[in-house]
Amino acid sequence: MKILGIETSCDETGIAIYDSERGIIADALYSQVKLHAEYGGVVPELASRDHVRKTIPLIKKVMAEAGCTQHDIDAIAYTKGPGLIGALFVGVGIGRSLAYAWDVPAIGIHHMEGHLLAPMLEDEKPDFPFVALLVSGGHTLLVDVQALGQYTILGESIDDAAGEAFDKTAKIMGLGYPGGPALAKLAEKGRPGIYKLPRPMTDRPGLDFSFSGLKTAVANLYRGSDKSEQDMADIAYAFQEAVVDTIYIKCRRALEQTNHKYLVVSGGVSANIALRQKLSDLLESKGGKAYYPRPQFCTDNGAMIAYAGYCRYQAILNQQGQFEEPVIRAQPRWPIADLS
């Protein structure tokens, strides 16, 4: 069985084909980073227009790379939401139209479920149940995962997501866009103990996150600094340490609350080396294991959508369910707990 996956939720056009016997057999990604860099963030209208230009050519490229024709594709999975409404409609419209033309099912995929399932593309896969930490520019979620579609949100960010906090902090420090990776790289040169920043919402019960206060604290530090390279690195180190410690504390609580032994970490921020090391150490100390997607599948990509489409396709067949009606519909706001 082969599933074509289409991802267009924000500023990356991702196309991939998942083969049930061989895994991902073709994958292509186009990033709009350079397009949005001069604006310091994603411009929705520009993102939508660029998806229009890139999606069909990438589909042709991936089909050729996999040696597939339309007759080899069993279903088309596309990101239905959440995301930017215009960007979503590009993928939804193309996915639905191709499915109609090729006479195959079309499957609308929840973007965060795609991230949640991305580690399943690796050789070592987590078993259900597990705790999932979905941490990216748009979301920071802790989810109790019992099975496909059985999700209970344990905690989420009440303001900025972790990735958003990285990018905004980097912008304050003049590190450009996207600033998260640049800030993490700068933090490698920082010294521990020079600055101390708060670990927000860790002094109270619960699993929700808040990162906007850290951004303000860094802004105050930056204004009072001498702007030297070392001082900038020390500030970056203190910020990253505060974010990582906060996430670590919340994940430890979630594991204790659920008694799960496995932690799945996915989304763009899951590529952060400091975060991976701290969470892996946490799970090892508890006799469990942390699972991550490979770096190329941490950010938005078509592979995770293709694989999630395969999982949904199998679930529909096994439960003798029905595919969605052939309607072009996107859901820019779509809580993952609403999935069946």
From TrEMBL:
<feature type="binding site">
    <location>
        <position position="111"/>
    </location>
    <ligand>
        <name>Fe cation</name>
    </ligand>
</feature>
<comment type="similarity">
    <text>Belongs to the KAE1 / TsaD family.</text>
</comment>
<keyword id="KW-0645">Protease</keyword>
<dbReference type="GO" id="GO:0006508">
    <property type="term" value="P:proteolysis"/>
</dbReference>
<dbReference type="Pfam" id="PF00814">
    <property type="entry name" value="TsaD"/>
</dbReference>
<feature type="binding site">
    <location>
        <position position="180"/>
    </location>
    <ligand>
        <name>substrate</name>
    </ligand>
</feature>
<comment type="function">
    <text>Required for the formation of a threonylcarbamoyl group on adenosine at position 37 (t(6)A37) in tRNAs that read codons beginning with adenine. Is involved in the transfer of the threonylcarbamoyl moiety of threonylcarbamoyl-AMP (TC-AMP) to the N6 group of A37, together with TsaE and TsaB. TsaD likely plays a direct catalytic role in this reaction.</text>
</comment>
<feature type="binding site">
    <location>
        <position position="167"/>
    </location>
    <ligand>
        <name>substrate</name>
    </ligand>
</feature>
<feature type="binding site">
    <location>
        <position position="272"/>
    </location>
    <ligand>
        <name>substrate</name>
    </ligand>
</feature>
<keyword id="KW-0808">Transferase</keyword>
<feature type="domain" description="Gcp-like">
    <location>
        <begin position="24"/>
        <end position="307"/>
    </location>
</feature>
<keyword id="KW-0963">Cytoplasm</keyword>
<dbReference type="GO" id="GO:0008233">
    <property type="term" value="F:peptidase activity"/>
</dbReference>
<keyword id="KW-0408">Iron</keyword>
<keyword id="KW-0819">tRNA processing</keyword>
<dbReference type="GO" id="GO:0005506">
    <property type="term" value="F:iron ion binding"/>
</dbReference>
<feature type="binding site">
    <location>
        <position position="300"/>
    </location>
    <ligand>
        <name>Fe cation</name>
    </ligand>
</feature>
<dbReference type="InterPro" id="IPR017860">
    <property type="entry name" value="Peptidase_M22_CS"/>
</dbReference>
<keyword id="KW-0479">Metal-binding</keyword>
<feature type="binding site">
    <location>
        <position position="115"/>
    </location>
    <ligand>
        <name>Fe cation</name>
    </ligand>
</feature>
<dbReference type="GO" id="GO:0061711">
    <property type="term" value="F:tRNA N(6)-L-threonylcarbamoyladenine synthase activity"/>
</dbReference>
<dbReference type="InterPro" id="IPR043129">
    <property type="entry name" value="ATPase_NBD"/>
</dbReference>
<dbReference type="InterPro" id="IPR017861">
    <property type="entry name" value="KAE1/TsaD"/>
</dbReference>
<dbReference type="InterPro" id="IPR000905">
    <property type="entry name" value="Gcp-like_dom"/>
</dbReference>
<feature type="binding site">
    <location>
        <begin position="134"/>
        <end position="138"/>
    </location>
    <ligand>
        <name>substrate</name>
    </ligand>
</feature>
<dbReference type="InterPro" id="IPR022450">
    <property type="entry name" value="TsaD"/>
</dbReference>
<keyword id="KW-0378">Hydrolase</keyword>
<dbReference type="GO" id="GO:0002949">
    <property type="term" value="P:tRNA threonylcarbamoyladenosine modification"/>
</dbReference>
<dbReference type="GO" id="GO:0005737">
    <property type="term" value="C:cytoplasm"/>
</dbReference>
<protein>
    <recommendedName>
        <fullName>tRNA N6-adenosine threonylcarbamoyltransferase</fullName>
        <ecNumber>2.3.1.234</ecNumber>
    </recommendedName>
</protein>
<keyword id="KW-0012">Acyltransferase</keyword>
